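Invent a record, attention on tokens:
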Amino acid sequence: MSWPSKHRLALLVFGLTAYGCASYDAPPVATLIQPAGGAFTEGELVRIEFSEAVNADSVRVRLWPNERDIENEIKSTTDPIVDVCNADETCGDFAVKLGAKRRSITLSFAEDLGKPGRPYIIELLPGLSDAEGNATGAVRAWDMQFKASGKENAEPIEFDDGIYIVGAQVDDPIPAVLTLISHIRVLPSGEFVLAGAEGDEINGAPKNTHDPENLVVDVTNQGWTAYARGFVNLTDDGKRLLETDAFNVVLPVGPLEVHMDNVRLFAEIVKDPDTGKDHLDGTLAFESLTLINGQNRSVQPGGSTALIGNFIPPELIPVGHPVLCEDLCGAVIGLCQPPDDFPGAAFCDDPG
């Protein structure tokens, strides 16, 4: 896990705020209301609330597919699904409804746009303003998707078991990059498990790189591991939708500990057109985040962010990662606490 600045982290830990001027009137602050469990159900309205009433003509929303490159950025060749949709406007299968008090908007997704599995990026464009004309100067963006339900499949699930780079970049409440070198296995029933270790960038690569040749497993006492169980649903139209049970992650950051509570992963499993191997495309959600420094604790609200997972060819796999059924800590000497009876006899008796 990488932090942009130790000074910024210290400010967050101790709850300090930047100095300000009493006469300053800030523009409206927008917040996506997170659903229970971290992902929206099919047909559910998506709600964004504002800290104050806004000007109707300043509300402009853009919708993107979650198509990201090896550095977890939107691909330069990607086009938005909805370029700009204004308040109280219907834009094809997407609609923006402004609340009566102008303190919120609800977004509706119709037809194929609202089906489970496909992750999206919602952008609230710059210029959102209040009655006094105080306007935002930057894009506000959120990652979200609709989830499937049920734990029974009519046909066996096929999956490319192996080692994946699974990554997400958290911006709120604290900016951080999470990269896991992960062993993933899926049974034909749809049950799956993941065991991962922190990956650190090398060779001057960006902190959010997914290039296996520029990542190593953190084998110091600052390393950490994560473990997840879950299920893959096969939908009627042939999509493979992955959802984990809730799990917790503890990360050492210098003298601090960061606890991410009730983390869930949601993703569609698709074939990478370049490699022909399975690829995860979805979101990571968590209910809360706690920073611990000795006796000091600072609890921050949860959020969600884009998640991608790339299959690693055997010849490029970084050494020291966890191995299901054999070595759940790998070479990590930091925080490594596998759950009891993980991953379970079914995965070890039939490794696939």
Summary: The first helix runs from residue 6 to 13. The chain has a mean pLDDT of 86. DSSP finds two helices and 20 strands in the chain. The CA atoms of residues 105 and 325 lie 48 Å apart.
